[in-house]
Design brief:
Layout lengths: L3 E3 L11 E11 L1 H11 L7 E8 L3 E8 L2 H4 L2 H5 L4 E9 L14 E5 L2 E11 L2 H10 L9 H12 L4 H11 L2 E9 L2 E6 L8 E5 L2 E5 L2 H6 L3 E5 L4 E5 L5 E5 L10 H6 L5 E2 L2 E2 H15 L6 E4 L5 H11 L7 E3 L12 H11 E3 L1 H4 L3 E6 L6 H12 L4 E6 L27 H8 L3 E4 L2 H7 L8 H4 L6 E3 L10
Parallel strand pairs: 1-23, 17-20, 20-21, 21-22
Antiparallel strand pairs: 2-5, 2-11, 3-4, 3-5, 6-7, 7-8, 8-9, 9-13, 10-11, 10-12, 13-14, 15-16, 18-19
């Protein structure tokens, strides 16, 4: 594995996004298919959305804007996108300083092979170095995203074909990426050699589809074929011809946080059911931590499955302790800390009659910054819970993520420099327990995962050198 030195200026734009691509043999309103698939991936990005389609051989029409999928696209916007044989889409969230429409995707550009569009999920940690190098050679950039750097480098190397450019460019990228690329009337899908970011291929009525999660294919009645393999490049042409190649040998080590939090419970990633993984975590936690309590509940939505597993294994009744406002985005991926704190206030409310006078075991999927956990426990106590014992279906998050999850520095993490007892005191729980990492990995199928945020065992060895800062891997 390569050891990568990351200057401080490169520790900015991290993304966890959702991507979709559709290739058909006939012209049809594919923008609508992409629209509904993006709806199913809304949990992966709630700041911006966009769709791009090809038409007339080598032209691209697109629309993207800030907001949820339903806010960005109305009938009027969808009508602007012509019937096509190929379309891609994207939902995005970003970190501070990059939340604006110029950074929304897909990235649309004019290159060696005409108009192209690209949608990206992940984070290229050496993108600033590549951008600086290209600027010195006369390239210009309009956005601050690593996705534009990906597009530019692919075009730079596409002297013989777009696929050749992808092969060469991907060899230079350090980090995580899943891509869908629209060029002419064909779609190209790419997954990084570690499989850090999920990408699944499906089929519907002869059309070939790609999506970040299988739930997006389910939403449009498509059949899952298989996951795109790590290091694989799949090209689907307008006539239906499909070719596969590799830019690198696979070193499978996908992000375990997908199963913990990021993915929807009804998705399957790399042949592992997210639901089954979370349910098994709950069962394991019940065997590990036997707490004298009255009821069990889960923080909606991603911890509910684990809580039901805990309830079944422990014999304690499962109750709904928290009501979630479905129209509020996920607080963990809000770009500003003040936004996260405000969102918690209107996102969750307690079922007072369910918890009043009860000793409650509360299951959550993870504790990252601690903001939400502290406010939830305070809310439950104010609503009548006599005890709140928190059990977490992941280990302590101790280290930054460099590959696309919004955990940039140890200082941002409540577990960066604190032990369980200290965290418990800060969030105000009566007790706090975490699942051991080996049990989490076992629940997720026992594969070799990137667990860098828990123990600094990254898929790719990354050393962050920040003068006067405590962000180096320890």
């Amino acid at each position: 594995m390569r050891s990568v030195i990351i200057p401080a200026k490169e520790m900015g734009v991290h993304e966890e996004c959702g991507i979709v691509g559709v290739q058909s043999t006939k012209k049809k309103p594919l923008a609508r298919e992409v629209y509904f698939a993006l709806f199913a991936l809304q949990h992966r990005g709630q700041e911006s959305a966009g769709i791009a389609v090809s038409y007339d051989g080598n032209k691209v029409a697109y629309y993207k804007n800030m907001g949820l999928v339903s806010e960005v696209f109305s009938e009027e916007e969808l009508a602007l996108l012509p019937d096509t044989k190929a379309a891609i889409g994207h939902v995005r969230y970003s970190t501070t300083g990059s939340s604006n429409v110029i950074n929304a995707q897909p990235v649309v550009f004019y290159g060696r092979y005409g108009r192209m569009a690209l949608a990206h999920n992940g984070n290229i940690v050496n993108s600033t170095a590549i951008r600086d190098e290209m600027i010195k050679h006369g390239h210009i950039f309009q956005s601050s995203t690593d996705s534009e750097v990906i597009a530019a480098l692919i075009n730079e190397y596409s002297t013989e074909s777009v696929e050749q450019g992808i092969h060469e460019a991907c060899k230079r990228f350090v980090g995580a990426f899943a891509l869908v690329i629209l060029t002419g009337d064909k779609i190209i899908a790419v997954r990084d050699k570690y499989g850090l970011k999920p990408l699944v291929m499906g089929e519907k009525d002869g059309d070939v589809l790609f999506a970040s999660e299988s739930c997006a294919l389910d939403a449009i009645d498509a059949r899952v074929i298989r996951d795109v393999n790590p290091g694989e490049i799949i090209t689907v042409e307008s006539g239906g011809k499909l070719t596969s190649s590799r830019y690198a040998d696979p070193s499978m080590k996908p992000c375990i946080f997908e199963y913990v939090y990021l993915a929807r419970s009804d998705s399957t990633i790399d042949d592992v059911s997210v639901y089954d993984s979370r349910y098994e975590c709950g069962r394991m936690l019940a065997e590990l931590y036997k707490i004298d309590a009255d009821i069990v509940s889960g923080v909606p939505d991603s911890a509910v499955v684990a809580a039901r597993g805990y309830a079944e294994a422990s014999g304690l009744p499962y109750v709904d302790a928290l009501s979630k406002n479905r129209y509020i985005g996920r607080t963990f991926i809000q770009p500003e800390q003040s936004q996260r704190e405000s969102s918690v206030k209107i996102k969750l409310n307690a079922f007072r009659s369910n918890i009043k006078g009860k000793r409650l075991i509360l299951i959550d999927d993870s504790i990252v910054r601690g903001t939400t956990s502290k406010k939830i426990i305070s809310l439950l106590r104010a609503s009548g819970a006599t005890e709140v014992h928190m059990i977490v279906a992941s280990p302590v998050v101790k280290f930054p993520c460099y590959f696309g999850v919004d955990m940039e520095t140890k200082e941002q993490l409540i577990g960066g420099y604190r032990n369980e007892d200290e965290i418990c005191k800060i969030i105000g729980a009566d007790s706090l327990h975490y699942i051991p990492l080996e049990l989490l990995k076992k629940a997720c199928g026992g594969k070799d995962y990137c667990t860098g945020c828990f123990n600094a065992d990254y898929a790719e060895t990354v050393e962050s050198v920040v003068k006067g800062d405590k962000t180096a891997n320890e």
